[in-house]
Structures are given as C-alpha cells and as structure tokens.
Write a structure and sequence with these properties.
alpha+beta; 2 domains; Thrombin, subunit H; six-stranded antiparallel beta barrel; 3 helices; about 35% helix
Amino acid sequence: MPLGTLDRTPPPFFKQGLSAVSKLLLFSALAVLLMVADVRFQVTEPLRAALGVVLYPAQWLAQRPQVLARASTELLQSRDAAQTAERQATEQLLRQAQRAGQVEQLLLENQQLRELLGLRERLGGRATAAQVLYEAADPFTRKVIIDKGANDGVQESAAVMDAHGILGQVTRVLPLLSEVTLVTDREQATPILNTRTGLRGIAYGDASAESWLELRFMAANADVAVGDLLTTSGVDGVYPPGVPVARVTRVERRADSVFARVVCEPLARVQGTRHVMVLAPLSDQIPPRPVIDKPRPLANPRGARK
C-alpha cells in the first residue's frame, strides 16, 4: 500500500475534548439555569408529571410488601382483640348467671327461713333451726345429716319439720351433727289423724323410688278418700299434734283383702330441702307422772281372827 494513502490522524481513543473543569462548570451552569427556570417558569413541571405517571406502577409494586405486612399485622391484632373481648364477655356472662342463680337461691332460702320462723311462732315451745348438709350414703334408707348436734341441745327422737310439714325424726345425735330419718324411710312409722273424719292410723314409709307414705292395716270400709289431709295425732309423745304430714293420693280396696291400700304423698320436701326446724321432744313438755303412794295395810282390829 503506498505510504501516501495512510491516515495519519490519531484514533478516537486518544482524542481529547473539553477538560474536566470545563465540563463541571458547564453542567453546573446548566443545573443552575434549570433550577432558576423551574422556580420562575415551572419548566420541568410537565416532565415531573410525566415521570410520576411512568414511575407510579413501580412505586405501587414497591409499596405492596409494606402494605401487606401492615394489613396482616392489623388483622392479627384485630383478631386477638376480638377473641379477648369475646372471652371477657363470656366470663362476665357466666358471672352474671352465677349471681342470678345465687340471688334466686338466696330468695328461696329467705322465704323458707321466714316460713320456718312463722311456724315456730305458731307451734311454740323450744325449737332449733338447722341446715341439711347431705343425704346419707346408704341407698336403702332415707336419712339426711343436719348441722346441729348435742352441743346445740338436739336430742334423740326429736321431731324435724320444714315449712310444709313433718320431715322426720332425729335417730342419732353426735356432738356437732345429727342424723334424721325421714318419714318416707321404710323403718319409720308416724301416728296420724285424718282431719276430715278424725280417724287415727299409722303412716309407714314406702321403700319405692317415689318416696310415698302408706297407711297400713286400714279397714277396707274405712272412711278414707283421695285428698284427705293427714296430720300428727300427738299420741306417740314425739310429734306435736296437728302438724301436717301427708295427703291421700290413692285408695285401693280389694275384695280379696280386709285391708285397703292407702297411698299418701308427704307434704314436707323430703328431697331437696335445705333448712329445717328441730323441735324439742314432746315428752319433755309432758309433766312427769305423779307418784302414787301405796295404801298401807290396816291394823289388825281387836278381836279379829288371826
């Protein structure tokens, strides 16, 4: 190749334009000019708006994780708050229900105590208020345990009653507790009087699950009808006379038997009673039997044959 055809200009890599200082001054002046123009004439406002529209999807996507995290946190907090509020409301409802039940129980006990006090005034004599603690564990008997014993003056064979009638009789006395055998126990017998006819009899406890009473050895032609009120006769020296015991609910007369089967319902609450009245035995109120001196033998008169 002829030497005259060679390009002797330096390559672009070695070309030098404006110096760095010149470029700094130029771009600084341009920046100041743009700032002044933007402040005075809002030259870059359309450009800023266009950039905002173009970059909005990228900004929206960049903010999604933060928004989702905040929403998840608020959801969890609201769920915890709702669960806490529900638990508190449930506990408050249970407390109110418990208080309502206690109020009803207190009203019932207050009514029973008022009835017992009124009964005590009508009967007169010495009486002790007691509370039923629990029923005896023997399934073949009808007995309850009360919270009064010998230290409170309770005696054996004392009559026990509630506001409706005779409940039973004290059969065992301990220093702090007493055992009461109910009138529905099969070993218990209560002398009664039919207030309509004046007929006397004895009511025995029935061992059936219904906890009734039965008038045994009652003649088939005896004047006993359904609805008759039976009260204590007072002839046994245990129960005071005139206290309600039971009401006749069924009378069965059979041709093959000389006795009628009379079933009675006790008026006292033999199941579920809480407060009772223990009466002093009637024998304590009866004056002692007078002592009669034996007649002295007559002296042997004179002239009588020996």
